[in-house]
Design a protein that fits this description.
Belongs to the adaptor complexes large subunit family. One of its GO terms (biological process) is vesicle-mediated transport. Keywords: Coated pit, Cytoplasm, Cytoplasmic vesicle, Golgi apparatus, Membrane, Protein transport, Transport. It is found in: Cytoplasm, Perinuclear region; Cytoplasmic vesicle, Clathrin-coated vesicle membrane; Golgi apparatus; Membrane, Coated pit. This protein has about 800 residues and is α+β, with helices and mostly antiparallel strands. About 50% of the residues lie in helices and about 10% in strands. The chain has 34 helices and 15 strands. The strands form 4 sheets. Strands 6, 7, 8, 9, 10, 12 and 13 form a 7-stranded mixed β-sheet that branches. Strands 5-11-14-15 form a 4-stranded antiparallel β-sheet, with no helix packed on it. A two-stranded antiparallel sheet has the order 1-2. Strand 8 (about 710-715) and strand 9 (about 720-725) form a beta hairpin. The protein is elongated.
């Protein structure tokens, strides 16, 4: 019976043509599956005649994204064949279908070894390419000797491939580096550019991986300089010419190696100074090829210990790049200038106008880099001109830039402001332009600036009042204006402004504006709090006290709990404590920045340390709903958990006495105990919870107990550290201060820290210093926890963290059980 032979498979070209006729994805899949089935049948038949053709078709299907793993062994069979055409497809298939994760690749180690010793250079080249592409560490160890032997051959075709293969071997098995050291001696004396190029790549890899090799190859600097000089000075060579430049690829590689060799070494840097100057001045800039060489030259000049004149030349090259029409070149120039601005500030300053022009670029990446570089260039000499340009940019830029730009303007103005009036004008311009985008701490910082600028009070309050009449949508602006009107409303009405023409304003007009803020839909709860406090302050500065009483009493029944609490407390001031109202609502003293670890700060007044709440230093507290705290009730399991009592002391941005809860608690009238505010803490809670409200400020009665700090949480860039202190009269109370820091590149906003403890403890959380954890560890958020532990039991705590990072809400739970014994014993 005659054997039935399979028909000859179609050629690769026909398969490609057939697949391209497919109208739909399903039709293409059907064609591929049909052809794969035929290829599998051919493989099973051990058809040597068409194996090469079938593997080639399989590789094409692999490139289209279809599975082709069943052809791996067939590739090995082709590699073992004696025909060059079979070996070529076999090695190509091995490079595409195999890697070191599959054990199959070890089977071809012997074939590669044989082919490395083959008499035909092209077969040897195939083996070198495959080993350099997908050789595993085991294969590299076995075959490194063969590669090193080919690296010493006189055949330039094999030497260049062997050099690249040696790079792969060194990456896989760094300890084999010394094996190739003798072979590198004569590589740079080769005339063939391909060998030179791959040799420089090999030397670069060895220098980057080993300090010893770096020191050894520094003696090659004169030889590299000579090769580079020959490339620059050589005439037209059609074999290596690219856009009129002789072998730019080799030039770039040599410059990169010179950068590594010259870094931190005076002698090597001195030897390459002249050639770098020649490259920088003789390279044609009309084509992109020349720009690539110039960019590498600039990077090399900046990294080595080059002469000052050479560095200026490099920065001037980057300045010319800024005028290029290609966006990529402009972006590269801005990024490079940003890296060098700290070391060569004056040289970069010469290109300031060009950099500022880049702020008007349509490309957002270029605009961002130009903005960052512009802020880096600001100093005391150019602050006025640069701020003018940056404020114009702030007016017209996209919303994504406004927050960063506003922060940059604030920092630059604080550092280099030529006068307080200019400083105040600049920050008010930012608030009116991009008020909704500024950081949370900008409001208290501006309030502090205004408070400390005594001679500018009348001018500031008049400017802010005008701004308020024009626009009440920018909440930070409205908050600062409300605070200033509450503090300096008498100056506004009296028209005492000397800086500009005073405006005529009546008391009723001022109160109309503030009452409008209370009822406006644009006002946030925090802004309404500022407005109500401002109205209350005006009761000691204006004569319209009855109108103010009526407004305050109306908000005693507000649905906003914090506003209601403020109104109730202010009503108490009008009734029971009216004789103390003028003293409590007097103007804020000058505020000094002092280090603080908790809710109060020590302010130096008249040379004496006097406890005072510096509310303008902190953003308004984060008001947490009750159910948010009670969410933690089941964190420790069972029913032995006490709820967190969040004593969020409302920040009143205008009261001289600050927190009225503190003030009313501190007052002892008629020798009796001070009344506690009705809305503060339920009476069922232990008495110590009222300590923060009825005692002097917290840190007056705290003594350091020598308790070591601890890290309670460290995840996703957020780190929470605990420091411990003991409260003086009651040793059963541990005072824990949390310090939240953020090592990521973006701020963490809406930060809320919550905690729960077993019911044998009592826990009280005070207000946090902020609800924004600044990026790159540029600041910390602090919050104080007071824990009553009468039974001296080991402290356990569950914490809940919620915040927003890069637009995404994050929530995490953690258990803290490793408190130091000194904190609870």
């Amino acid at each position: 019976m005659a054997l039935r032979r399979m028909p000859a498979p179609i050629r690769l070209r026909e398969l490609i043509r057939t697949i391209r006729t497919a109208r739909t994805q399903a039709e293409e899949r059907e064609m591929i599956q049909k052809e794969c089935a035929a290829i599998r049948s051919s493989f099973r038949e051990e058809d040597n005649t068409y194996r090469c053709r079938n593997v080639a078709k399989l590789l094409y299907m692999h490139m289209l994204g279809y599975p082709a793993h069943f052809g791996q062994l067939e590739c090995l069979k082709l590699i073992a064949s004696q025909k060059f055409t079979d070996k070529r497809i076999g090695y190509l298939g091995a490079m595409l279908l195999l890697d070191e994760r599959q054990d199959v690749h070890l089977l071809m180690t012997n074939c590669i070894k044989n082919d490395l010793n083959h008499s035909t250079q092209y077969v040897q080249g195939l083996a070198l390419c495959t080993l350099g592409c997908m050789g595993s560490s085991e294969m590299c160890r076995d075959l490194a000797g063969e590669v090193e032997k080919l690296l010493k051959t006189s055949n330039s075709y094999l030497r260049k491939k062997a050099a690249l293969c040696a790079v792969h071997v060194i990456r896989k098995v760094p300890e084999l580096m010394e094996m190739f050291l003798p072979a590198t001696k004569n590589l740079l004396s080769e005339k063939n550019h391909g060998v030179l190029h791959t040799s420089v790549v090999l030397l670069t890899e060895m220098c980057e991986r080993s300090p010893d090799m770096l020191a050894h190859f520094r003696k090659l600097v004169p030889q590299l300089v000579r090769i580079l000089k020959n490339l620059i000075m050589s005439g037209y060579s059609p074999e290596h010419d690219v856009s009129g430049i002789s072998d730019p690829f080799l030039q770039v590689r040599i410059l990169r190696l010179l950068r590594i060799l010259g870094k931190g070494d005076d002698d090597s840097s001195e030897a390459m100074n002249d050639i770098l100057a020649q490259v920088a001045t003789n390279t044609e800039t009309s084509k992109n090829v020349g720009n690539a060489i110039l960019y590498e030259t600039v990077l090399t000049i900046m990294d080595i210990k080059s002469e000052s004149g050479l560095r200026v030349l490099a920065i001037n090259i980057l300045g010319r790049f800024l005028l290029n029409n290609d966006k990529n070149i402009r972006y590269v120039a801005l990024t490079s200038l940003l890296k060098t601005v700290q070391t060569d500030h004056n040289a970069v300053q010469r290109h300031r106008s060009t950099i500022v022009d880049c702020l008007k670029d349509l490309d957002v990446s270029i605009k961002r880099r130009a903005m960052e570089l512009s802020f880096a260039l600001v100093n005391g000499n150019n602050i006025r001109g640069m701020m003018k340009e940056l404020l114009y940019f702030l007016d017209s830029c996209d919303p994504e830039f406004k927050a960063d730009c506003a922060s940059g303007v604030f920092l630059a103005a604080e550092k280099y402001a030529p006068s307080k009036r200019w400083h105040i004008d600049t920050i008010m311009r930012v608030l009116t332009t991009a008020g909704s985008y500024v950081r949370d701490d900008s409001v208290p910082n501006l309030i502090q600036l205004i408070t400390n600028s005594v001679e500018m009070h009348a001018y500031t309050v008049q400017r802010l009042y005008k701004a308020l009449l024009d626009d009440i949508s920018q909440q930070p602006l409205v908050q600062v204006a409300s605070w200033c009107i509450g503090e300096y409303g008498d100056l506004l009405v009296s028209g005492q402004c000397e800086e500009e023409e005073p405006i005529q304003v009546t008391e009723d007009e001022v109160l109309d504006v503030l009452e409008g803020l209370l009822v406006s839909n644009l006002s946030t709860p925090v802004t309404r709090g500022y407005a109500l406090t401002a109205i209350m302050k005006l009761s000691t500065r204006f004569t319209s006290v009855n109108r103010i009483k009526k407004v305050v009493s109306i908000y005693g029944s507000s649905i906003d709990v914090e506003l209601q609490q403020r109104a109730v407390e202010y009503n108490a001031l009008f009734k029971k404590y009216d004789h103390m109202r003028p003293a409590l609502l007097e103007r804020m003293p000058i505020m000094e920045k002092t280090a603080s670890n908790g809710p109060t700060e020590i302010v130096q007044t008249n040379g004496e340390a006097e406890p005072s709440v510096v509310e303008a230093k902190h953003p308004p507290p984060v008001t947490q709903p009750t159910n948010q705290a009670n969410d933690l009730l089941d964190l420790l399991g069972g029913n032995d958990v006490v709820p967190v009592i969040q004593t969020t002391v409302p920040t009143k941005p205008a009261s001289a006495g600050g927190e009225l809860l503190d003030l009313l608690g501190d007052l002892s009238l008629s020798g009796g105990p001070a009344p506690a505010p009705a809305t503060s803490v339920p009476s069922s809670q232990p008495a110590f919870l009222l300590d923060g409200l009825t005692s002097p400020p917290l840190f007056n009665d705290i003594a350091a107990a020598g308790i070591p700090p601890m890290t309670a949480y460290n995840k996703n860039g957020l780190k929470i550290d605990f420091t411990f202190e003991r409260a003086n009269p009651n040793p059963n109370i541990a005072v824990i201060t949390i310090h939240a820091s953020n090592s990521t590149e973006a701020d963490m906003t809406d930060f809320v820290f919550q905690a729960a403890v077993p019911k044998t403890f009592q826990l009280q959380l005070l207000s946090p210093s902020s609800n924004v954890v600044p990026a790159l560890n540029q600041g910390t958020v602090t919050q104080v926890i007071r824990v009553l532990n009468p039974q001296k039991q080991q402290l356990r705590m569950r914490i809940k963290l919620t915040y927003t990072h890069k637009g995404s809400a994050v929530q995490d739970l953690a258990e803290v059980n490793n408190f130091p014994p000194q904190s609870w014993q």
